[in-house]
Design goal:
The complex is a heterodimer of chains A (194) and B (562). Chain A is α+β, with helices and mostly antiparallel strands and 194 residues long. Helices cover 38% and strands 13% of the residues of chain A. In chain A, strands 2-1-5-3-4 form a five-stranded mixed beta sheet. The N terminus of chain A is likely disordered. Chain B has 22 helices and 22 strands. In chain B, the strands form two sheets. Chain B has a 20-stranded mixed beta sheet, with helices on one face. Classes of the chains: A alpha+beta (194), B alpha/beta (562). The interface between A and B is large, with 32 and 43 residues.
Chain lengths: 194, 562
């Protein structure tokens, strides 16, 4: 029944999810993150448990905290109004827009970008840098995003997390489901596994 | 009318039971001839005043009922159509409201009731000259619309707000048959859109139409009915505009009387300037289906200085609201809807700062509906200071039970500030983390409050008791997901008959508590909606309302009248 949240809890939950879905070399359980606040989720979960649950998580909501369920009839927005905006989102995603969620490690909230607004990786990086006020730097085949603090990664159609820039732009925008700007140190793991 | 004839009629009209008493009363207490009384009463429009008039004496009761042209029925189950027809023989206009408001948010099952058809049947014989029908939250079928269109010859104005059960076929019947239509207002309904052809069913000669609000733009229609004062345009598709952009521009400038513009669902920045020529005269602009950004809104608003009412999506952000504050000094009503209400991960939209900006620039604000994801007590206190004339204050902090995000305290002081400062407050919707203190403030200070909406708030029965013990003008109380139980419910025993209705869902009220209430107050309908699979002793959804029509005869199986 406890539906109270503070923004701090929000942050920790997001962090936990991504931790579970990132590609890492290392044994499950060697998790150096702090424990989840038990007041929220009610029980501790090991990282491997998290991994399996989030992999099957279809709708990307933070179902790691079972208290944050969708409440019927809340917020009090008429279904008619909800359908309109949803319908627009869907039609824009199919037609004129391609919105994907973008998160950045360390930022408490997600944003959305319309991939159709950009014509190249450079433009996308510029947009992301403006949005999150960070420096991403340039991609190179050999070095990845080494030399900068952040590295952009994306989840592709198969659910794998890849480094942004490894495939041609046209292929990228059709397969990108969501973006995550990781700390460069963590992205190195991805690079090695490619 | 022949005065002698009229006077004879006055005697006939008096209820047979009290004939003797009434005549002697009338010679003693009511010196006016009937025709004078009726002439005077015909000037009284407000239904509240008319109710007061009807209570003065039998003569006034009768004069009032014969002179009434418009009847307002706030709860269709509080009275029956037969009773209405018997009391008011000369009605030309009816306003009828049905389902409890929380049905808008899927809290009331389908087939709950509020079918308009029994009313139309009675009206077709009692009021064949009915001209206006305004329905809110009623179940309306295509058959009913067709019945309406074909049984009332002089029908002029139809307004359907938040109704469901019909399709564009029903609208076709209206468009085809109502030769004298001046108003067709169809908004926020669950309509089955079977195609726009119904629009072409309006006869070409239709010149009477003044108000048209519907779901798709047809620019030819705009040109056909030049005295259109209100236009809800719906879609504003790029395809429609790509060819004759200049033509559409002319269309809008031809609408000399355009005072309202709504819809604009797909308006992209490129095409918004098309409506600029119409903006100068606009008093109401509904952009709540257009995902505008702050800069687009700002540009639009510089052309719309006459705005009194503005509806927006929160995509405009705090920056967009700053533009509202600077461009719209005459603004009286602002509604900011969430573009992504159900997406819990996104943080976009508006904050307390946008609201404060508007309050600074728009001191005449009296109606606000504001959806946000963060708020502070201090901001609301500032807003109350800036806009003391609020009559409607509906604040929805979308995360249930969320505290002041800076101080982490409950939002009690915010609503305390509102009720203390805004003495004209009639309607209040609260949200965020709230203790019983909020309700203590409300009960004590909100002397003019008529409608209160509460969700995920309060600490104990005391909260609800404070409200029921104060708020002398309370008419509608709707509560969900609060820790109020039987003691709270029963504390309102003496109050419910002076209210229109009470809704309580997902609270701590039990069947026994409801039975107790029903037993004590036979003139109330105490209805409990059964939830499948829930505990039988808990009363999960309770709807209590006063009625002269007795228990519902059309209640579906899941509605239990105690």
């Amino acid at each position: 029944m406890d539906r109270k949240r503070s923004s701090l809890n929000l942050f920790e939950d997001i962090d936990l999810n991504y931790k579970a879905t990132e590609l890492r070399l290392g044994l499950p359980g060697t998790d150096d993150q702090p424990e989840i606040k038990t007041s929220l989720s009610g029980n501790k979960r090991s990282s491997s448990e998290m991994e399996s649950s989030t992999c099957t998580d279809e709708n990307e909501s933070r179902s790691a905290s079972p208290t944050k369920e969708q409440v019927v009839g809340w917020p009090p927005v008429r279904s008619y109004r909800r359908n309109i905006v949803q319908g627009k989102k869907e039609s824009s995603e199919m037609g004129s827009g391609m919105y994907v969620k973008v998160s950045m490690d360390g930022a408490p909230y997600l944003r959305k970008v319309d991939l159709k607004m950009y014509r190249s990786y450079e433009e996308l990086m510029e947009g992301l840098q403006k949005m999150f006020k960070c420096i991403i730097g340039l991609y190179s085949e050999r070095e990845g995003y080494n030399g900068s603090q952040h590295a952009p990664t994306y989840e592709d159609k198969d659910g794998d997390w890849m480094l942004v820039g490894d495939v041609p732009w046209e292929m990228f925008i059709t397969s990108c489901k969501r973006l995550r700007i990781m700390k460069a140190s963590e992205a190195r793991g991805l690079d090695d596994s490619l | 009318m022949d005065p002698n004839q009229k006077r004879a009629k006055a005697v006939d009209r008096v209820d047979s039971v009290d004939t003797g008493a009434a005549s002697s009363e009338s010679t003693r207490m009511c010196p006016f001839p009937d025709e004078v009384l009726e002439r005077v009463l015909s000037l009284i429009g407000s239904h509240k005043d008319r109710s007061s008039v009807s209570l003065v004496c039998k003569d006034w009761y009768n004069a009032e009922r014969w002179s009434r042209r418009h009847v307002f029925i706030g709860n269709c189950y509080s009275v029956s159509p037969e009773i209405v027809a018997a009391r008011f023989p000369r009605i030309r206009s009816v306003t009828l409201k049905g389902k409890p408001r929380f049905s808008d948010f899927n809290l009331v099952p389908e087939d709950w009731g509020a079918d308009v058809h029994p009313w139309l049947s009675v009206f077709s014989t009692a009021y064949p000259f009915l001209e206006e029908l305004r329905l809110k939250r009623m179940a309306v079928s295509d058959e009913s619309l067709e019945f309406l269109a074909t049984n009332f010859q002089g029908f002029k104005a139809l307004s359907l707000l938040s109704c469901d059960g019909f399709s564009t076929d029903g609208l076709k019947a209206i468009a085809t048959n109502c030769k004298n239509l001046t108003e067709l207002d169809v908004q926020e309904n669950g309509i089955d859109d079977l195609g726009g052809h119904w629009l072409s069913c309006f006869p070409e000669s239709l010149s009477s139409l003044e108000i048209l609000n519907f779901a798709s733009l047809n620019s030819e229609l705009l040109l056909q009915a030049p005295q259109l004062m209100e236009l809800g345009t719906g879609t504003f598709m790029q395809e429609l505009v790509s060819g004759p952009v200049t033509e559409l521009k002319n269309t809008f400038s031809n609408c000399k009387h355009l005072v309202t513009l709504s819809g604009l669902w797909d308006a992209t920045p490129l095409y918004l300037p098309v409506i600029y020529p119409a903006c100068a005269r606009l008093t109401f602009l509904n952009l709540s289906y257009a995902t505008l950004r702050s800069i687009e809104l700002a540009n639009l608003l510089t052309h719309s200085k006459s705005l009194r009412r503005l509806w927006l999506l929160d995509t405009v952000g705090d920056k967009g609201l700053e533009a509202v504050g600077s461009c719209c000094p005459l603004l009286e009503e602002l509604r900011v809807f969430p573009a992504d209400p159900f997406d819990q991960e996104i943080f976009l939209g508006v904050t307390e700062s946008g609201f404060v900006s508007v309050s600074r620039g728009c001191p005449k604000l009296r109606y606000v509906l504001y959806f946000c994801r963060q708020m502070t007590n201090a901001a609301v206190a500032t807003i109350a200071q800036n806009c003391p004339d609020f009559t409607h204050f509906r604040l929805c902090i979308m995360n249930p039970g969320q505290p002041d995000y800076l101080t982490k305290e409950p939002m009690d002081e915010a609503f305390g500030a509102i009720v203390k400062t805004c003495t004209k407050l009639q309607r209040l919707a609260v949200s965020g983390l709230l203790t019983d203190r909020t309700f203590e403030y409300i009960g004590k200070y909100a002397k003019n409050l008529e409608t209160l909406s509460v969700a995920f708030a309060g600490s104990s029965d005391l909260g609800m008791e404070y409200v029921l013990g104060g708020c002398p003008k309370l008419r509608k109380l709707e509560i969900r997901d609060c820790p109020f139980g039987n003691a709270a419910l029963l504390s309102g025993l003496t109050k419910y008959e002076s209210m229109r209705s009470l809704w309580m869902s997902a609270c701590n009220v039990t069947m026994n508590g409801c039975r107790e209430l029903a037993k004590e107050k036979p003139r109330l309908n105490v209805e409990v909606m059964k939830d499948e699979g829930s505990d039988d002793s808990q009363a999960h959804k309770v709807y209590v309302y006063r009625t002269v029509a007795g228990p519902r005869r059309d209640a579906p199986p899941f509605v239990l009248t105690l």
